[in-house]
Amino acid sequence: MSEQQRQGAERDLYRDTWVRYLGYANEVGEAFRSLVPAAVVWLSYGVSSSYVLADAIDKGKKAGEVPSPEAGRNTRMALAVVDTFVWQSLASVAIPGFTINRLCAASLYVLGTMTHWPPTVRKWTTTTLGLLAIPVIIHPIDRSVDFLLDSSLRKLYPSVEKPSTP
């Protein structure tokens, strides 16, 4: 097998392709909250949540494909699904969504009280700030969620069966 084929076989659809960006849909929705109907924001959460669920199921299936004694297979699959689902729910949906929501709400408030800009300019400025913040918050949130899970949920896993960090 060539190096390129081997890399292609190891490529994770949910982590190494454009599909990963579906996990950021809710952050984009939150950034645009002041400009779009609430239903659009909720739809963005639906997209992100679907991504999280699909990734968790995929990791469970992959854990089940690892050759090992059948007795540990179900446990390994369950741990992979739970770990991925919790990690992705926190790192891709809940924490970034809350962060962008609060950043945009605060910036809209500050712009409203400290400037005389028209509402449309304030809203677009807020949206721009929210969008620009997304790449800045991703890695600190990911590392924080790693630390949180390593310090809590992952301590409950059997030592041999710890899933790899998403």
Please compute the radius of gyration using only Cα atoms: 19 Å
Q: What is the total number of structural domains?
A: 1
How many distinct helices? 5
Strand-residue proportion:
under 5%
The biggest sheet, with number of strands, parallel, antiparallel or mixed sense and barrel status, is: none
Specify the overall morphology. elongated
Cα distance, first to last residue? 26 Å
Question: What's the helix and strand layout?
Answer:
Layout: H1 3-10, H2 25-31, H3 38-65, H4 70-114, H5 119-151
Helix pairs in contact: 2-3, 2-4, 2-5, 3-4, 4-5
Overview of this protein structure:
The chain has 166 residues and is mostly helical. The chain has helices at 3-10, 25-31, 38-65, 70-114, 119-151. The chain is 73% helix and 0% strand. Helix 4 runs antiparallel to helix 5 (119-151). The radius of gyration is 19 Å and the shape is elongated. Residues 1-6 have low confidence and may be disordered. One of its GO terms (cellular component) is mitochondrion. Belongs to the MTFP1 family.
